[in-house]
Design goal:
single chain, 74 residues, mainly alpha, elongated, transmembrane helix, transmembrane, membrane
Length: 74
């Protein structure tokens, strides 16, 4: 695998992130929103994979609350 990446690891090759034209927006607010969105997506995907029991329990209790509210006699 290192042989495949060797041409990218040369000292003469610059990083794309260091160039000013690499990003369409250098605004700090846009970067914060983008970073928050990426972190949220990573957190949700980790929870979906690693914690299925948590999601089952949360959905069960939400179902109980909704069912209790919908089928309660007035």
């Amino acid at each position: 695998m290192d042989a495949d990446l060797e041409r990218y690891l040369e000292a003469g090759v610059g990083r794309v992130q260091d160039e000013p034209a690499c990003c369409f927006s250098k605004c700090g607010f846009g970067k914060k929103i983008s970073g928050a969105a990426r972190e949220t997506e990573a957190l949700v995907s980790d929870l979906m994979v690693d914690q299925p029991l948590l999601w089952l329990l949360v959905s069960f209790f939400l179902g109980l609350l909704l069912g209790k509210r919908l089928f309660r006699g007035n």
